[in-house]
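User: I'm writing a tutorial on reading structure tokens. Could you give me a worked example: one chain, its sequence, then its tokens, then a sentence or two explaining what the tokens reveal?
Assistant: Sure. Here is the example chain.
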Amino acid sequence: MKKITRRLSFTLALMLMMVTILSACSSDKDEAASTVAADGRKSGENGFIANRDVTGRIFLEGDGAQLPDDQVNNPVAQKIKEKTGMTMNWQSSGAADGLQELTVALATGDLPDVIEAYLDHGGRPEMPVLLKAAREGMFTDLRPYLENTKVLKNYLDPDFLPRDTRENIMFRPDFEGKVYFIHMNIPAKNTTDADRIHYRGGMWIRADIAKALNVDPTSIKTQDDLFNLAMKIKEGNFKDNNGKPITVIGPRKWGGQVVSSLFKNYDFGNGTQFDVLDGKVKHVAETDYALKSIDFVQKLLKAGLLDKEAFNMDGVRAEEAYNNGSYAISPYMNIAPDSLTMFEKTKYLPMDQMYNYKGEDAIYEKAKSGSQVWAIPATTKNPEQIVQFADYLASKEGKALWNYGIEGEDYKINDKGQYIFTDKVLSILNNSPQDERNTIPYFWGSLLGKTDVNNNKDFGELIRGANSQPDRYKLYFELMNYGNPKYKYWDGYTAASYLSEVPDIEASLKPVLDSYKDVLVQAFFAKDMTEATKILDDYRAQLKAAGVEQYEQYLQQKYDKDPSSVVFYIDAFF
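And here are its predicted structure tokens:
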């Protein structure tokens, strides 16, 4: 019996060894095949990278619908595969909360080859989540691979990146030279003001109502101006596109959230919660501006001028309402090429030149933009191939493919070097724009490829499609330049960006800072200002207990040493 058992054990061991050897041989064979193209090109030759299928996951908000129905077999993807050997398949649940999805995925380790997350600056709530994952070794150091790229190597040039991107996101001192994230949507080094797109983020008003009341939206400068205008609109009994009564002020275009542009005169810190008052860094809750903001919103609510769901409405309902003209005023929307259809249905005009609390009516913008990041999990094999793939997508050839499609079929280049869509594409854009993504997978390609951006230089137009549809984009440029706005540009860290540098209070202070918008909503709906003041007093006590004074001292030291290093402006969101 023992002999049989030994013989069986030996046989099983031998079989296991053979399987292991065969598996290794198979693996080696597959690995070798993956770096040789069908036409004999080896990795690195004439653009070929590897025969590889890459899977990514998008942690954005509801953007999955912009992906092609077939991400691998559409003509552009096939052309890119022909050039590089690579295919790309992005996963998206279309969830409304990308941050929550990201947090869960990182906590469970459920990660594909590459991930994409929202991050327009280092003070975003996604940043601590991404930082924690990087510090725990969950991402690949991309620095060695950037040095072997053609386009992405620009990230190694200090002059290429905005200060916040360079020092707070990608090349953080605590990373000790390693790079875990690639910040996207960075303008090219040769970008000028003529190449800049202004999205006019802020308050907007229905154009027909402004005309009916003979109101110039640029003349609305104060909270009293806004309130008086809102009352006139209410008294005017205006209707929506279906003939139903409207509500004067609604939520932001993307759904309910506190946006400080609604009370811009009192927006101490311009959306960052912190600013300098009488030489001292303070949180907005420690100033009179907080109560003034609450008092103004209560006034709007009591007069029936503000939708009671303005701070919690879902994005689908909000956008549908603005498409239908159901609100006269939005406290926050912007004009972007992919939202132009809404403005064609119901035209709104920017009313974004109200005074801030300092009495300035200029519109603040980042000197150089940046938004979204991608990262490669540490579990991904051959990460250099994905970096090379992203580098190709960021090249002019790659950008042309996912921006304009196949030359000759989807676009032509005129004698001025301008890219013009063919009648085939124009028919899709005019008759079934929702199908454009299956012919020209712009969003799909932009996730890894949209950086080093200068559309004017590369394609002869500021906005993709403007030369092909000049009548349509006439409206876009009209809105972008409406009212001859003045701009102030900034570059640096926002106040919230420094929170990770004080780890002894970060864990306790961050949730309290994040809850400020919820505190405001409670105060907005308090029965009177006495109750609202009590809510704010309680919040101040929470701030103090969580270490806000220590954080203010830290910001004060940074500010006193270099005032430009702390930017007390970001946007209209808390």
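What the tokens reveal: Residues 1-33 have pLDDT under 50 and may be disordered. The two ends are 76 Å apart (CA to CA).
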